[in-house]
Amino acid sequence: MTRSDLVDQLAERFAQLTHRDAELAVKTILDALSEALENSHRVEIRGFGSFSVSHRPARIGRNPRSGEQVVVPEKRMPHFKPGKSLRELVDQRGDAAA
């Protein structure tokens, strides 16, 4: 599902929302989520999961083409941990498809 698919589904489900209003709602939620993660806050959506920022320390890597060592700088990466109900829902649907 893409962002535009989400906007379309939201506009269809709630007739009182115009397509533009649904687009603004999705944009506002994603902007708030991004801003919270940028400030190293944890975002938890009950029944869905939690978003947090994990830290990867600097390390020595290898250039696969030349084989020489390269310094890889430290990074802050977004991390998503699904909630219990989402994990169970996906697992049930996976069993039905198999």
What does this structure look like?
With 98 residues, this protein is an alpha+beta fold. The protein has two domains: 1-38, no CATH class; 40-98, Irregular (HU Protein, Chain A). It contains three helices and five strands; from the N terminus they run ααβββββα. The strands form two sheets. A three-stranded antiparallel sheet has the order 1-2-5. β1 and β2 (49-56) form a beta hairpin. It starts with a helix and ends with a helix.
Question: Any descriptors?
Answer:
single chain; 98 residues; alpha+beta; HU Protein, Chain A; 3-stranded antiparallel β-sheet; two-stranded antiparallel ribbon; 3 helices; 5 strands; 28% strand; extended
Explain briefly what this protein structure is.
With 98 residues, this protein is α+β, with helices and mostly antiparallel strands. The chain has helices spanning 3-13, 19-38, 84-97; strands spanning 43-45, 49-56, 59-62, 69-72, 75-82.
Going by CATH, the homologous superfamily of the largest domain would be: IHF-like DNA-binding proteins
**Helix count from the secondary structure assignment:** 3
Rg: 19 Å
Structural class: alpha+beta
Low-confidence stretches: none
Q: What percentage of amino acids are in beta strands?
A: 25-35%
Order of helices and strands: HHEEEEEH
Assign the CATH architecture of the largest domain. Answer: Irregular
Q: On the 0-100 scale, what is the average pLDDT?
A: 93
The figure for the number of domains is: 2
What is the approximate shape? extended
The number of E-state strands comes to 5
Query: How widely separated are the two ends?
Result: 21 Å
CATH topology of the largest domain: HU Protein, Chain A
Enumerate the strands of the largest sheet in spatial order, edge to edge or round the barrel.
Answer: 1-2-5
Q: What is the name of the CATH class of the largest domain?
A: Few Secondary Structures
Share of residues in helices: 40-55%
**Sheet with the most strands, sense and barrel status:** 3 strands, antiparallel
